[in-house]
Amino acid sequence: MTMTTDIKITKINQSKFEGINLDNITFGTVYSDHMFFCDFKDGKWQQPEITPYQPLQLDPSARVFHYGQAAFEGMKAYKDTNNDVWVFRPEENWKRICFSAKRLAMPEVPKEVFMNGLKTLLQMDSQWVVPGKGNSLYIRPFIFATQAGVSAAPATEYKFMIICTPVQAYYKGGDVKVKISDHYSRAANGGVGATKAAGNYAAQFYPTQKANEEGYQQIIWTNSTHEYLEEAGTMNVFFRIGDKLITAPTDERILNGVTRKSIIALAEKEGIQVEVRKVSVTEVIEAAKTSNLKEVFGTGTAAVIVPITGVGYKDDHYDLPKLENAYSTMLKEQLLAIQYNEAEDIFGWTQKI
Ligand SMILES: *Cc1c(COP(=O)(O)O)cnc(C)c1O
Q1: Strand bridging mode 34-41 / 158-167
Q2: pTM of the entire predicted model
Q3: Mind listing the pLDDT tens digit for each residue in 301-315?
Q4: Residue 91 CA to ligand 1 centre (angstroms)
Q5: Looking at ligand 1, which residue's alpha carbon is closest to its atom 10?
Q6: Which residues of the chain have pLDDT under 70?
Q7: CA–CA distance from 348 to each of 88, 134, 187, 239, 248 (Å)?
């Protein structure tokens, strides 16, 4: 294992950073100077490397293209007012990519490969973590099958990589209305819904496009009988009914979001009553009809908390009121304050790079 901890580094000749106008970029279109990768072959992880960010060369028969062995993570680095760089609960992302990899018959990524790669890459590209609240560097670790040959079996060769892209805010304000799915499903028991398998996203695009055509930005995914509410788009989802906050338990269909569990902890610390239990469509629609549905919001690393402004179900639509003291605003501010090292990190969530 000691071998994998030494990273072979090739630095870029001239940083691309100076030439970039960060105010004017679309999320995920510009990448930082370097990328990290580590190949798995001959039954073991090889020497990790950092090189200038560049295209990959893969055989057209590489199995990722044919059988979809691919999984990813999403995390962020934040800069505080002292110019120190912080990451938020990175071990959770490492554990989760191992969980996803295992379910897709891919090798688990050794912890030191993940953590050392992350840390070294962020140290090298730290100027890409733009200071200022709301700015961050989005980090995308991912693993995929590189072995050539279209026989339908798990590959014997893989690549684990980390790339980074500067962000301001993922969903730039605006209304986010959601449609409760009464036909399509994103996950089933025994399936891969709880993983960040690339294919989960592919399967969501078409139903989401159809919802877009009806004026909704995202879908609230339901269980196979369409009775229980599970996730909003690619975020976990919370419902505030009266003063209670309710979210579904994570299981084989629901992704165990880092933001979700951090929000639960912060809400409980604030004395908010949090119920982690199944949430039925009937309960939420009833609450909407009687004006007891105060808030619905999604949680995820990219956007932290996305307040939902309206919910559609079959032919009906329910607009949600704009609240003065929304839980979503308060909890988002608290979480951001911890992530940007402005508030005391009582939970021990952040790590300095
Ligand atoms: C990544 C993801 C989330 C959010 O997870 P975080 O760890 O909070 O970023 C929620 N649901 C799905 C389906 C996801 O892929």
Answers
A1: antiparallel
A2: 0.94
A3: 988 999 999 999 999
A4: 15
A5: 235
A6: 1-5, 169-173
A7: 9, 21, 32, 27, 25
